[in-house]
């Protein structure tokens, strides 16, 4: 089709590309002409063991389709090795899909240091390590597309996932800052919050949902966000079963307690701070907040005293 979004001569690193969502991204980017680094450590859902076969299988699938791919078996914690694999095989890096992930679900009271650290190392540490290793190259070539994978658990919280939700929420903070820092060099960075059938969700979602929520219905958003024609940056998208929507901060009109604000005043007027009706706004930067506060203080000063 004439409007097909192609990735010819683009090099795409997909982490955790041996199964689930990562495998689906890798196959689709390859179908569209991209050269793929299929990264996967081949671990269990809780991050144990390792197997080269997991990445190799996807590379075989891609090659059978006539596509181009190499396997990489390093943990995402070692981003430089993954970048080296891309440079050695293809000479450049255009797109990073930070997708690899594991779970260490346990209620917070029972969470060990290891449950916490491992999740931070893989999700946040992995995205940092790989992105950092590629960042200067993307800046120099004035092109880069990066996807960070968050989760409903990150943006809403979820029982038994204090570690995972912290890391997943943190990944959007990573997106927000890199989107700003990458802007002038045509590096676009976005976050997705997917829902898809995979080994991560096979015992959580109902069979009906699993049938509808295929990874393939998440893939098109990621393809579009990573295409050179897409300028979107710094956004977060929920994506599931073919549904896509963006989300943003909404601020309540708030209350202003003046220079002598007291805890007792806040108690009395608590509903005002938490009320989303009226003059709500949608701040996009810290400076928006400071401007708003200054505006309220100035307006209050200018108000005639009775
Ligand atoms: N499936 C969903 O509904 C859903 C929802 C929210 C977020 N996510 C996120 O989407 C991403 C993909 O999840 P999935 O459902 O496809 O899971 P999955 O378990 O099928 O795939 C994850 C892959 O990452 C690999 N991996 C794990 N640790 C690694 C490491 N240190 N280095 C390299 N590879 C590693 C695993 O071997 C596995 O192949 C994850 O980040 C997950 O947290 C998924």
TrEMBL record:
Residues 10-203 form the Ketoreductase domain. SUPFAM superfamilies: NAD(P)-binding Rossmann-fold domains (SSF51735). It comes from the Eukaryota. Keywords: Fatty acid metabolism, Lipid metabolism, Oxidoreductase, Peroxisome. The keyword Cytoplasm does not apply. Pfam families: adh_short. PROSITE patterns: ADH_SHORT. Gene3D superfamilies: 1.10.287.4290, NAD(P)-binding Rossmann-like Domain. Its main location: other. Transmembrane segments: none annotated. GO terms for cellular component: peroxisome. GO terms for biological process: fatty acid metabolic process. It is found in: Peroxisome. InterPro entries: KR_dom (IPR057326), NAD(P)-bd_dom_sf (IPR036291), Peroxisomal_Beta-Oxidation (IPR051687), Sc_DH/Rdtase_CS (IPR020904), SDR_fam (IPR002347). GO terms for molecular function: oxidoreductase activity. Coiled coil: none annotated. Pathway: Lipid metabolism; fatty acid beta-oxidation. Belongs to the short-chain dehydrogenases/reductases (SDR) family. This is Ketoreductase domain-containing protein. It comes from Blepharisma stoltei.
